[in-house]
Amino acid sequence: MQKIISEAAALEEVKKAIAETLTIDKESMGPESSVIKDLGAESLDFLDINYRLEQAFGVRMARHFILEHIEEMFGEGSAIDENGQLTDKAITLLKIRMGESLPEIHPGMDMDEVPTLITVQSLTRGVLDILDSLPEKCPACGNSAWKSENNVRIKCGSCGEYATFTNGDDLVKAWLTKIQEEKKIF
Amino acid sequence: MPTEFSKRRVVVTGRGMITSLGKDTEETFAKACRGASGIDFISSFETRGLPCRIGGEVKNIWLDEMQDTKAQRFYKFSSRGLRLMRKATLEAAEQACLDEIKDRGRIGVALGNHGENPSVEDIMFLHRFYHGDGTWNMNGLLKAGGYSALNFLKRKPDVGTSILSILFDCKGPNLSIVSACSAGAQAIGEAYRIIQEGKSDVMIAGGCESTLNFLGFVGFVLIKAMPEKYTTPQKASRPFDRKRNGFVMSEGAGTLILEDMEHARSRGVPILGELLGYGTSADAYRITDVHPKGLGATLAMRGALADASLIPEDIDYINAHGTSTIQNDATETLAIKEVFGTRARKIPVSSNKSMLGHTIAAAGAIECILTLVGIERSTILPTINYEFPDPKCDLDYVPNEARIKEHRRAISNSFGFGGQNACLCIGGFDG
Lengths: 186, 431
Description:
The structure holds two protein chains of two kinds. Chain A is mainly α. In chain A, 42% of the residues lie in helices and 4% in strands. In chain A, 25% of the residues are buried.
């Protein structure tokens, strides 16, 4: 687990990216704010937010919603039923990923409601997950001397190379594989 | 001072198109009647590595490459979209005997188009002389021949309209309409107004588009507007189907010759149909997301009906915008139900884009013409690839097979990115 970038520092940077994209005050959002419902983002804004986060942290954010990955990995209809509603299995997975207690995740939830689940906190978690894929040693020089630059970018203290990470989509897929092995949901 | 302003009636005396399905109206309509698809893998540029690799290309052999001397002079300034438009307009102008009209000052042009995207080569050329800090090696740039003014002109939508007016000698009102997917329909609507109000007798009206090039395509890939899951290219455009996942980009052009009814009668040219009403609106909501309740679409449809002095019961067919995106098809369905109430389920609604893909600025014009031909031949074109019903899309979408059915009045919807909406009300000519 990398602790070079703290959760608080990542949260700050995510807030900054959202604030700049939506031209709103950083103070107007809390970790639980829904980026769409509470902060007024539209789908296009996520491109901008992701781009800013990618530039800031040197990462590649997930381009696809988890539902798309579920459909691709476990077959058509595995996440969304013919009424456009989430399957019970998809609900189970979403709860494991986003929190059992979230009242927004409910049986019969419409697929259109899923994007509204994205919060400042969930975006931060997405970034931290990617940062956690930091290899122990620098692939360029083999030394273990990572350090942070401005609290957001990780670079090698020995050779000066910036760190590279697993991309967001691959991490989601790896997570789904792991959960499937453990819980045999599908 | 006149106490009453009586609007002139506007009829159609010519029509022309070039699409991924055919070189002209006849071929496009005939193939559409059979439920054919014009979509295939893109061949005009490299798409390897992109999540979407399909589109509706117009075959180059269908393009008469401006062989006559007058047209040749303008070839170098002409975007591919404009070259498509010229082809469509030649067909329409011939049908309407446009060159027989003496007073050229009473013929105008209203063209929906967006000009051409810069090519990757253009950008690479400029990059050679850019220092990266806002400064340029101007000497080097000028020595290398400077930047191509011809390409600069191709990018400007106004130049396209201007060239069209030169090629067809139209000295009347000249309008360039830039409103994405509703540009073609808006051009027709605005031209209709100009004739109604007596400012012109005849208008060349329509739209053209060719964004099947790297920069045009990648932009839509980035905003994830195009389908990334399809079994075959021909199956990718599936409006109102549950498994739709984006619009398929196509190129094409459509031209109508609109004319004051009395003017057309005095010339003795055949009248092919009548434009009855035009409504236009904006969602004023978001850049790419449509209003979730389809408020803008509702306003445009109601506007067109009111303009035509018609009520929902008078409409026999709806040529839908039907892009095959998750959002559009569901909200368009909602809007149709809002406007037409209980009658909504009884009106056939179909999307030509299932076969042609989305020709953006040309779509409104092509679809208006296909609607007119359908009225004339009592044929309602199908929505192909309709296999899996979506509970949010619960109207009669004329699935997969054309329907022989007499119908007299229709509306054609065009709802642009950014919530720019236009709706045309079209009818057979009843004298």
